[in-house]
Amino acid sequence: MSQSYDRGLIEDFGRWREFTAGMWAWVFHKFTGWVLIGYLFTHIAVLSTSLQGAETFNSTIQGLESLALVRLLEVGLLAVAVFHILNGIRLLFVDLGVGLESQDKSFYASLVLTGVIVVASVPTFVSGAF
Amino acid sequence: MSTQTPDTETESEAEQPSSKPHHERRLAEKRERAETKEAERAAAAQDIKGETVELKVFRFDPEIEGKEEPRFDSFTIPFEKGMTVLDALIYARDQYDSSLTFRHSCRQAVCGSDAFFINGRQQLGCQTQMADLDWPVRVEPLPHQDVVKDLVVEMDHFYDQMEAVDPFFDPDDLPEGELEEQRQSPENRENIKLSTRCIWCGACMSSCNIAAGDNKYLGPAAINKAYRFYMDEREGEQKRQERLEIIEQEHGVWRCQTQFSCTNVCPKDIPLTEHIQELKREAVKQNLKFW
Fold first, then answer.
1. pLDDT tens across B253-279, in order?
2. pTM of the predicted protein model
3. Where in the sequence is the domain holding A59, given as residue range(s)?
4. Residue B204: closest CA among B225, B173, B186, B232
5. A41 — contact with chain B (CB < 8 Å)?
6. Numbered ranges of CATH 3.10.20.30 in chain B
7. What is the mean pLDDT of chain A?
8. Cβ neighbour number for residue B84 with a 10 Å cutoff
9. Structural domain tally of chain A?
10. Among residues A61, A37, A38, which one has the least CA distance to residue A48?
11. B277 touches chain A (CB under 8 A)
């Protein structure tokens, strides 16, 4: 036992192909959580333009909403938020010890539901932008 | 053999280039021997009749020059019905390379020494059928543990964590008579039944992403061990409290982020995540006061 070999970080994310449902749920939950925190700051920045009066606020919002990119990002934001909510509910059940055997199915269900909701919302978000 | 006359000629022939240092000649002979051995081995591999399976095994030996760099060795193993990964490894060691090192003992999923990373999943070698795997089969040492040699990993940290939760029975009062039993209700036995199955193989700890990043985290196996005693109705009140204090620490149950990796890989099908979650609820119940 003169020395031992440490294979390093490659063991974790280098093996993403072997991740199971619970692991993916965790990765997505972390990711969406950080995206939502990031969004919170831009949200505050945009809202705080109202401090300079109604005019500025209206023009900022209108300016942003006229950009197709912002409309697309909004769809993405909805996807992130919906997944975070649904997976959060899933985690709540996991914490309560309810249905632990079907935790992978509930993860897939929350993914599918997120997809459905996002697709259904696309016309509302994107109309008039293109 | 110098006593035999015909040999003297060959001997003298061999000694003809005596200007060459003795040592070089020995090396050449050694190389030749190795080559013939290699050829024999290749022939043996070709001689195998019937189905064969290719086994790719992680090799690493820090003590031998030229083997410090980790690599994969391939072995051609004759496949038999019912062959496990451990059987294949034993064949490779016995037939091809006696330096191939791995832990194994009981061959029936009880001793917990042969947990490997087989085709990207922590599994017991003796419990995994070759027929159930995608071929070629890739065998690596458990991830997130330091490799000592080949498939042998450092288990000290895992054992330390197992012992950190005081895995022993400590009742408050002993029964009167010397031969009196300490009875447990069948319902309570059912509750802890699955948690008693643990064989200390370390597969769960190896699969856990959190344990990999946080060395102080007790890990699924240790928490399961704590669950086994905490949920036992015969556990003494004093010890119960002490045990709860150990597991409700920052690096105890609260580090679990319910990835279910441990539950997925456990060779004894212990619902580890469920047990951890239950202990989390116990910890909350003990500390929540409404006043």
1. 998 988 898 999 999 999 999 999 999
2. 0.79
3. 21-126
4. B225
5. no
6. 45-152
7. 86
8. 20
9. 1
10. A61
11. yes
Contact A12 B212 (CB under 8 A): yes
What is the biggest distance separating any 2 CA atoms in chain B, rounded to whole angstroms?
A: 105
Architecture field, domain B155-171+185-287: Orthogonal Bundle (1.10)
Mean pLDDT confidence for B74-98: 91
Residues in chain B with CB shorter than 8 Å from the CB of A91 are 258
B60 closest CB neighbour out of A1, A5, A95 = A5
A7, part of any domain? no
What value, to the nearest 5°, has the Cα angle with vertex B42 and ends B38 and B45?
140
Instruction: Report the length, in residues, of chain B.
Output: 291
- A16 occurs within a structural domain: no
The CATH architecture to which B45-152 belongs is: Roll (3.10)
- Cα distance from B33 to chain A (closest Cα, Å)? 31
Query: Does A84 score more than 90 pLDDT?
Result: yes
pLDDT digits (tens, 9 = 90+) for A24-69: 999 999 999 999 999 999 999 999 999 988 999 999 989 988 888 8
Residue A12 falls within a domain, yes or no? no
